[in-house]
Write a structure and sequence with these properties.
By secondary structure, the chain is α/β, with parallel strands linked by helices. Helix content is 43%, strand content 23%.
Length: 128
């Protein structure tokens, strides 16, 4: 399945904050096309983002991406709070481009503290 197409088609029905998050994700996957196919991490929906890209995003865009994550979770058949945003470094392994898994930066509130590690829960990240 081509997630960028699905996400793009769903843009019109999303809330403004979710749309902005989708636009950010589409821009990142345009720059790093291999990330489109990586939206799972074990039992959780996930998106993988190069740490440098996350660091460049203004706080408002980081929050928009967090607000978009329930949509990714739903696309993978999980609850809207069962997701993680994973940061890493682009690399090549076995001739294929991939991203190292360095840390979780934000996790849905349903993700256990053990699974989330040093990542922040979405409600804390969003100040709720």
């Amino acid at each position: 399945m081509i997630w960028a197409v699905i996400i793009g088609a769903a843009l019109t029905s999303m809330a403004q904050s979710d749309r902005r998050g989708a636009e950010i994700w589409l821009a990142i996957t345009a720059k790093y096309p291999f990330l489109k196919s990586q939206i799972d991490w074990g039992n959780h929906a996930a998106i993988f983002i190069p740490e440098s890209e996350w660091a460049r995003l203004p706080a408002s865009d980081q929050k928009s991406l967090v607000l978009f994550m329930p949509q990714i979770a739903k696309l993978t058949g999980r609850s809207s709070n069962d997701w993680v945003i994973v940061l890493g470094q682009p690399t090549t392994a076995h001739g294929e481009k991939t991203l190292t898994v360095d840390r979780f930066v934000v996790c849905g509130d349903a993700v256990s503290a053990e699974d989330c590690g040093s990542g922040r829960k979405a409600s804390a990240f969003l100040g709720k």
